[in-house]
Design goal:
- This protein is of the alpha+beta class.
- The protein has two domains: 13-100, Substrate Binding Domain Of DNAk, Chain A, domain 1, CATH 2.60.34; 118-204, Substrate Binding Domain Of Dnak, Chain:A, Domain 2, CATH 1.20.1270.10.
- 44% of the residues lie in helices and 20% in strands.
- It is built from four helices and six strands; from the N terminus they run ββββββαααα.
- α2 packs antiparallel against α3 (152-168), α2 (116-146) runs parallel beside α4 (174-204) and α3 (152-168) packs antiparallel against α4 (174-204).
- The longest helix has 31 residues, at 116-146.
Length: 209
């Protein structure tokens, strides 16, 4: 849950933030709009959702999807998602919702204060796990593609680091997950750079710069 327009913002107003894809070749992205004060979507009030479809196939993290919120003077919220490289876009309107009482708002605020610390801890753990899962996926695909360019020692060390990271993901320890993620990065960085150099030399072979 990212807050784009804070509570009590003067209207009309607007805000935007960029996001990216999670999987290679991902062509759709689900945008869900929530109202609330908490860090995790499960603790907030869902207002609407829509899908941005037709994102061109790209490596994970390469797409640039800008999600923009605009609230006009009538309180109508327009949400637009646009992939900046291709121009693919989708937009919806969310009309004001008056089904929430002042008592419910007060309760939401109180809960956000009461659970602020635990929410931050849980969010940090979720983000660490997400990063760890992404690194594992990228490393696995890299190894499959470049096995012949790596030594037996490199393959063994990488497998051990991947296994350690996979195990850490089952534990509720953000620091451990981040440490194992960095350890996997350190193991793979030298040969990843070497493989990249080989690819660049091959691409430039016979060409002058």
């Amino acid at each position: 849950m990212d807050v784009l327009i804070p509570r009590n913002s003067k209207i009309p107003c607007g805000a935007a933030r960029q996001y990216t894809t999670h999987q290679d070749g991902q062509s759709d992205m689900r945008i869900t709009v929530f109202q609330g004060e908490r860090d995790l979507v499960k603790d907030n009030r869902k207002l609407a959702s829509f899908s941005l479809r037709g994102i061109p196939g790209m490596p994970a993290g390469f797409a640039k999807v800008e999600v923009s919120f605009t609230i006009n003077a009538d309180g109508i919220l327009s949400v637009k998602a646009k992939e900046l490289r291709s121009g693919v876009a989708q937009e919806i309107e969310v009309k004001p919702q008056y089904g929430i009482s002042s008592e419910e708002i007060e309760k939401m605020l109180l809960e956000s204060i009461t659970h602020a610390k635990s929410d931050m801890v849980e969010r940090a753990l979720v983000e660490a796990r997400t990063e760890g899962e992404q690194i594992l996926s990228v490393t696995e695909k890299f190894i499959q593609k470049n096995t012949t360019l790596l030594s037996a020692e490199e393959l063994t060390a990488t497998a051990a680091a991947m296994q350690a990271l996979q195990l850490s993901l089952t534990m509720a320890d953000k620091d451990l997950i981040q440490r194992k993620t960095e350890e996997l990065n350190e193991v793979t960085r030298p040969f990843a750079e070497r493989v990249m150099d080989v690819a660049v030399k091959g691409a430039l072979q016979g060409k002058s710069i």
